[in-house]
From TrEMBL:
<comment type="subunit">
    <text>Homotetramer.</text>
</comment>
<feature type="active site">
    <location>
        <position position="143"/>
    </location>
</feature>
<dbReference type="InterPro" id="IPR033693">
    <property type="entry name" value="PGPEP1_Glu_AS"/>
</dbReference>
<protein>
    <recommendedName>
        <fullName>Pyrrolidone-carboxylate peptidase</fullName>
        <ecNumber>3.4.19.3</ecNumber>
    </recommendedName>
</protein>
<dbReference type="InterPro" id="IPR016125">
    <property type="entry name" value="Peptidase_C15-like"/>
</dbReference>
<keyword id="KW-0378">Hydrolase</keyword>
<keyword id="KW-0645">Protease</keyword>
<comment type="similarity">
    <text>Belongs to the peptidase C15 family.</text>
</comment>
<feature type="active site">
    <location>
        <position position="166"/>
    </location>
</feature>
<dbReference type="GO" id="GO:0016920">
    <property type="term" value="F:pyroglutamyl-peptidase activity"/>
</dbReference>
<keyword id="KW-0963">Cytoplasm</keyword>
<feature type="active site">
    <location>
        <position position="80"/>
    </location>
</feature>
<dbReference type="InterPro" id="IPR036440">
    <property type="entry name" value="Peptidase_C15-like_sf"/>
</dbReference>
<dbReference type="InterPro" id="IPR029762">
    <property type="entry name" value="PGP-I_bact-type"/>
</dbReference>
<dbReference type="InterPro" id="IPR033694">
    <property type="entry name" value="PGPEP1_Cys_AS"/>
</dbReference>
<dbReference type="Pfam" id="PF01470">
    <property type="entry name" value="Peptidase_C15"/>
</dbReference>
<dbReference type="InterPro" id="IPR000816">
    <property type="entry name" value="Peptidase_C15"/>
</dbReference>
Amino acid sequence: MKTVLLMGFEPFEQEVVNPSWEAIAGFHGQIMAGYHIICRQLPCVFGESLDMLFTAIDRFSPALVIAVGQAGGRTDISIERIAINIDDARIADNKGNQPIDQPVIADGPTAWLSTLPIKSIVWALQQAGIPASVSQTAGTFVCNHVMYGLLHMLSQRPMSKGGFIHIPYLPQQAAAHLGAASMSLETMQRGIEIAILTALSVETDIPLTGGATH
């Protein structure tokens, strides 16, 4: 049976949970549209996260890989368009690493574009009443590190699609961050399910606007 690989992260920056893992963990072992769902938790650590990701892709040869990360402060489910070949950490990772202006992959291209149907996913989420948008940056921390490494690896596996999704804080996290947006776990889970089904069913993305003026 073909597989879908979902990747989430452990908590970081003094948080006790990471919504990316909470939102995907329950999908592990499920069958969705004829695909076996496999979930793995990544460390919030430069290098180690890619090692684990690459090992999982080699082991399961998934048809679809979606990595999910926490983006505290964002108000919706953000479908990432692009990953850049730069690690530039504002904070240290969970093992104290703080690379500055270092490439994710030495001699890799400047950037990789998601191979998910990002506009179709956003449209499907919005039609379901879930706030969603295309994001033009995955940052320069471990999330971008993983997205870039994922797309770099999948460039050598043309039968596989992949990309990255950012989600907001959970309500219990937002309670500790005055004024921060949040989203319920149930809405996040429904959003991830819609993203998976859309990515599996759509071959050619729809030409809807998703850009930004600044």
